[in-house]
Write a structure and sequence with these properties.
The protein is α+β, with helices and mostly antiparallel strands and 150 residues long. It has four helices and nine strands; from the N terminus they run αβββββββαββαα. Strand 3 and strand 4 form a beta hairpin.
Length: 150
């Protein structure tokens, strides 16, 4: 199989839902468990992590710089046709926004088929990103276990 074909297979898998990474901690601190899905039009990826028993949700740009480090954002989340929830986010680099993460937010994403995030800056500039989040229950198995979601 040539490199071009392998790349297409990888992209097809990524676009169809979640990709996971599970790394146990050798010292019993809980490990790092991640699930990533790509935005439908090439925006930042949605990353849900459990790192040493702490939940984190991030938007991560796979390309160039998208965010200004240190900038605060209002982030609105809507899973399927459910209620809109609001949280804060902060750009921790030009490529990553770290969201204030609650367990209920992660549970909502895990159960949804589609999740939309609207990121708004103080200057009223906003961007909406839509993710295929189907299959979250299976993809989040180690996250749920490591961060006591159930």
């Amino acid at each position: 199989m040539n490199v071009e074909r392998v790349s297409l297979v990888i992209v097809a898998v990524l676009l169809s839902g979640w990709t996971t990474s599970n790394k146990e901690d050798h010292f019993g601190e809980g490990g790092t468990f991640s699930a990533v899905t790509l935005e439908q039009t090439g925006g930042p990826g949605l990353v849900v992590k459990c790192v040493e028993r702490r939940l984190a949700v991030r938007l991560v740009s796979g390309g160039g710089d998208m965010f200004k480090t240190g900038t605060s954002y209002v982030v609105k989340l809507r899973a399927d046709k459910g209620p809109i929830t609001t949280t804060a986010g902060k750009a921790i680099s030009e490529r990553i926004i770290q969201l204030e993460t609650q367990a209920d937010m992660v549970r909502t994403i895990r159960k949804a088929s589609e999740t939309a995030l609207r990121v708004e800056s103080a200057t009223d500039i906003s961007s909406t990103f839509v993710y295929n989040t189907a299959g979250g229950v299976k993809a989040f198995a180690r996250i749920a276990q490591g961060c006591n979601l159930d």
